[in-house]
Amino acid sequence: MLFSSITPRITATATATTTANPSLLPHSTYIPSISLPFSSSSKPLRPSSRLRIRAIDAAQPFDYESKLQSQYLQSTSLKIAIVGFGNFGQFLAKAFVRHNHTLLLHSRSDYSHIARQLNAHFYTDIHDLCEQHPDVVLICTSILSTETVLKSIPFQRLKRSTLFVDVLSVKEFPRNLFFKYLPQEFDILCTHPMFGPESGKDSWVGLPFVYDKVRLGDDDEERVTRVGRFLDIFANEGCRMVEMSCAEHDRYAAGSQFVTHTMGRVLERFGVESSPINTKGYETLLDLVENTKGDSFELYYGLFMYNNNSLEQLERLDMAFEAIKKDLFGQLHQVYRKQLFGDSEEEKRTHRSVQKLLPNGAHVEPPKES
């Protein structure tokens, strides 16, 4: 039969391989004798012809390199709670996920579907979030609702060394709120990413990130390291890291950010539109309108209301505009007078300007031209 003729070949081949190079096979693994029952003439393998098998690239119980990488990520990652998961909060959360940080999310609106896409946890109750003991609590609300949100946080459910961070467009206002409501043991870091979902949608490289280490537990190395890890998120994304006080930030921001938003809104109300003959300067104005009109009026009002320097900048803008109007209408007035009165008006004005008085009060006539 066919099977009876195959069996001796298998036995002979296995025996020859084992005898030729027995060192290739381990001494601890054996395959028992195999007998094919299809023919009465087939003979089973003898015990001396057992095969020994050695796996050259045997699978290990676990991937050592993968385990080391996982341990490193766990040691360097932060548990970040984002309070206020709106448009800007979602924008920042994507970067936090890229750097392997754990996210805990809370907002007035239900964004659980977006949280699932980020593999994050969304909590409708702020108490449930705080009971997870995050390392960092990031306040990402609007300027106007910051105080209300801070007052609603159950601080007693957090670790006493929790780091509070804000990303508001004004800095002295949230700093003062932190001093007012946070327990003394909490750390405070005031930050301002000076870009948004529109200006930072492609890359953060070169974009300014302002921060002020307001209050840190300097005697605790772990707390200092935690702040560095949070700031490294933005540094590794390529941001230009700028450390300055909250007061300095508000002074500079009023002269740049508030003025920028004001001009963008003025031009939007004015109704600038693209044309077939746009100049480079006009394209810049269109881009300005595009970048600012996506922000809510609530943000713009917060920049004005909660920055002590904004009112001064608004008044300076108004005076500058009036001065330009005065220069234009003043020049136009001279043109009209010349058209109405001709050269005689100019001669009279010149004649009056060169007249002088003698000691007795008599006029001195200028010399006549020959």
UniProtKB/TrEMBL annotation:
The keyword DNA-binding does not apply. It comes from the Eukaryota. Residues 78-358 form the Prephenate/arogenate dehydrogenase domain. One of its GO terms (molecular function) is arogenate dehydrogenase (NADP+) activity. GO terms for biological process: tyrosine biosynthetic process. Pfam families: PDH_N (PF02153), TYRAAT1_C (PF26213). Keywords: Oxidoreductase. PROSITE patterns: PDH_ADH. Residues 346-370 are annotated as: Disordered. PANTHER family: AROGENATE DEHYDROGENASE 2, CHLOROPLASTIC, AROGENATE DEHYDROGENASE-RELATED. This is Prephenate/arogenate dehydrogenase domain-containing protein.
